[in-house]
């Protein structure tokens, strides 16, 4: 006896298909948290914990004034510059190290020495070398963000099936063509994972350097408002950093979906 297939209803969800749309539970949690903070701060009445409504007013005022918008632009440019430099260098070096055991053996001690060094501890050296300014901020962010990209690229290359490489060489591809047409696409999921991790690290380092050097950006804005005891404005700067980190994460996820369309569960396109 044969069983007739059951047609799926239009709009019905299928296993493995990614649901898209508004995260209602997450939005409800955020709204509830804001309301709880509003009520709690009103009851406690502490000047160091202003209600979210005052922070929102301060945020709008500072954005309209242009000071916070200008600081935000400086921070975004520094994060973008550091992440771009780390991505380019990390992918290139990771590809070379992953495809050459001899080169990795030569550079392994240097890499293992530099990787554990806290990036913040190198800020004084960067200031002596580059001075106080955007160059130092970008360099510190690039150094910190380099390692996730480099090692995710390295392990992505090492995980490529040797049969795929041998097959490509059988068809007459050169070493460079094998790297570009076989190894790089197969290692791309790991590379993008490293870039996603590096984007958060770059933001943290940029804000940290701005706080330490007072060279501008949202970090300096937060530090200045804290020293001036303008608490709502200080929290407005902190809120901007959180929103910026969230938007950067969304941007990297969108890049992953665009580049890895062939690697989605359930064939979702």
UniProtKB/TrEMBL annotation:
User: CDD domains from the entry?
Assistant: TM_PBP2
Question: Source species, please?
Answer: Pseudonocardia oceani
Keyword tags: Cell membrane, Membrane, Transmembrane, Transmembrane helix, Transport
Q: What is the lineage of its organism?
A: Bacteria, Bacillati, Actinomycetota, Actinomycetes, Pseudonocardiales
Top-rank taxon, per record: Bacteria
What subcellular locations does the record give? Cell membrane
ABC transmembrane type-1 domain ranges (all copies): 72-256
Protein's name according to its UniProt entry: ABC transporter permease
Predominant place of localization: membrane
Regarding the membrane, this protein is recorded as: Multi-pass membrane protein
Q: Which ranges does the record mark as transmembrane? A: 27-49, 69-97, 109-132, 138-157, 178-195, 201-222, 234-255
Give the similarity note: Belongs to the binding-protein-dependent transport system permease family.
The record's section on Pfam families has: BPD_transp_1
């Amino acid at each position: 006896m044969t069983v007739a297939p059951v047609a799926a209803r239009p709009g019905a969800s299928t296993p493995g298909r990614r649901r898209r749309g508004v995260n209602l539970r997450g939005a409800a949690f955020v709204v509830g948290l804001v309301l709880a903070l509003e009520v709690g701060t009103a009851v406690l009445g502490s000047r160091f914990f202003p209600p979210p409504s005052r922070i929102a007013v301060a945020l709008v005022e500072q954005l309209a004034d242009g000071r916070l918008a200008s600081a935000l632009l400086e921070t975004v440019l520094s994060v973008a510059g550091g992440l771009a430099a780390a991505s380019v260098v990390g992918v290139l070096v990771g590809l070379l190290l992953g495809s050459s055991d001899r080169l990795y053996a030569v550079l392994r001690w240097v890499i293992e020495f530099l990787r554990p060094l806290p990036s913040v501890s190198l800020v004084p050296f960067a200031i002596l070398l580059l001075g106080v300014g955007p160059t130092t901020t970008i360099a510190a962010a690039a150094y910190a963000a380099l390692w996730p990209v480099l090692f995710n690229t390295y392990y992505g290359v090492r995980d490529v099936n040797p049969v795929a490489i041998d097959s490509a060489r059988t068809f007459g591809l050169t070493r460079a063509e094998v790297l570009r047409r076989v190894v790089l696409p197969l290692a791309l999921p790991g590379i993008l994972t490293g870039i996603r991790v590096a984007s958060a690290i770059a933001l943290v380092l940029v804000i940290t350097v701005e706080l330490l050097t007072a060279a501008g950006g949202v970090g300096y804005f937060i530090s200045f408002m804290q020293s001036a005891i303008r608490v709502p404005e200080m929290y407005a700067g902190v809120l901007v950093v959180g929103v910026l980190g969230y938007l950067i994460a969304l941007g990297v996820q969108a890049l992953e979906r665009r580049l890895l369309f062939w690697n989605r569960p359930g064939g979702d396109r």
